[in-house]
User: Which sequence fits this backbone?
């Protein structure tokens, strides 16, 4: 049985996005167990990543009678409770139970209220998993964005909010963009406000976290006319290609940025010169970018064997030059232990 993260709950995937909006409330239209499970998971992961903020989640607390006779009244009541918190918006996520009993969630949420109430379909067992929930939430929240004149800045789209190195990857992409004289306008969606999201349509470039979000990039391009890059950079050569592509999309000469990054990469390679010729057997827990592994094998002349120290390829793969440096540091510690 596969245990990859993208095979998990659709609801959890969507919540990993909606709970990253600081001034909004997420309602789970379903039994309390769905809310308890997801609140506990998100809180534990945020705490582990030094984010000491409780996820803003409320349950509609569906009971047996609601399942038999319909849970629309329960949903209307919990929306009223959420309004008492005076959020900027309310996101209603449907559980498998609510989807199965056929509640008209859109009708309940479509009633006139002082604040926007947005439905995000996440009834997972009717089709979909964790990644589908992420995409559903990103597409839904994009409708909160406004069109604007290109700002010359960049949006990062679909950062993996449950990823341990999410902020380290953000800082690396920000560092690379700074070499081009460009700044990040919006992290869509991570630790942002509704006012931030309204700027979504004014960026000059959207950068997807990875290629699996190409559909989201297409939606943003259709709505706002914003070009996109398909993924964060991986590998030494991939990082240089990222700078070239970003510069081309933004109309910026990237030659100086690429030269600066090449010099930094050579420093990193020299720093790990003691890895040259090391006998290793590299473990791959998930899909790894083959060209990057080939690049590392060529640079360090690894002696690939069936036994001996077994450094592991992280999943997701490290971002940029700094990500490779952290990975090589871990490999050196393991192989020298």
Assistant:
């Amino acid at each position: 049985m596969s245990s990859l993260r993208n095979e998990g709950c659709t609801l959890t995937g969507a919540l990993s996005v909606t709970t990253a909006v600081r001034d909004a409330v997420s309602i789970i239209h379903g039994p309390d167990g769905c809310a308890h499970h997801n609140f506990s998971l998100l809180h534990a992961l945020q705490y582990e990543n030094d984010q000491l903020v409780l996820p803003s989640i409320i349950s509609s607390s569906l009971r047996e009678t609601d399942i038999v006779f319909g849970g629309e009244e329960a949903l209307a009541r919990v929306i009223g409770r959420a309004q008492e918190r005076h959020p900027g918006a309310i996101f209603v996520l449907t559980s498998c139970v609510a989807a199965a009993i056929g509640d008209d969630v859109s009708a309940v949420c479509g009633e006139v209220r002082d604040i926007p109430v947005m439905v995000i379909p996440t009834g997972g067992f009717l089709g979909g998993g964790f990644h589908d929930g992420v995409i559903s939430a990103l597409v839904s929240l994009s409708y909160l964005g406004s069109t604007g004149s290109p700002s010359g800045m960049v949006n990062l789209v679909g950062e993996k909010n449950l990823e341990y190195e999410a902020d380290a990857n953000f800082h690396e992409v920000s560092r690379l963009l700074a070499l081009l004289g460009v700044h990040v306008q919006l992290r869509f969606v991570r630790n942002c406000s509704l006012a931030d999201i309204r700027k979504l349509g004014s960026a000059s470039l959207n950068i997807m976290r990875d290629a699996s979000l190409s559909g989201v990039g297409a939606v943003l391009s259709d709505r706002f006319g914003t070009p996109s890059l398909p993924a964060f950079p991986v590998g030494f050569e991939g990082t240089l290609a990222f700078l070239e592509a970003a510069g081309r999309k933004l109309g910026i000469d990237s030659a100086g940025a690429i030269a600066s990054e090449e010099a930094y990469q050579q420093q990193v390679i020299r720093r790990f010169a003691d890895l040259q010729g090391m006998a290793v057997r590299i473990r791959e827990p998930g899909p790894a970018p083959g060209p990057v592994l080939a690049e590392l094998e060529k640079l360090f002349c690894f002696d690939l064997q069936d036994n001996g120290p077994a450094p592991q390829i992280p999943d997701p793969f490290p971002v940029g030059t700094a990500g490779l440096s952290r990975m090589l540091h871990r490999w050196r510690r393991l192989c020298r232990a």
Observations:
- Confidence is low (pLDDT under 50) at residues 1-6.
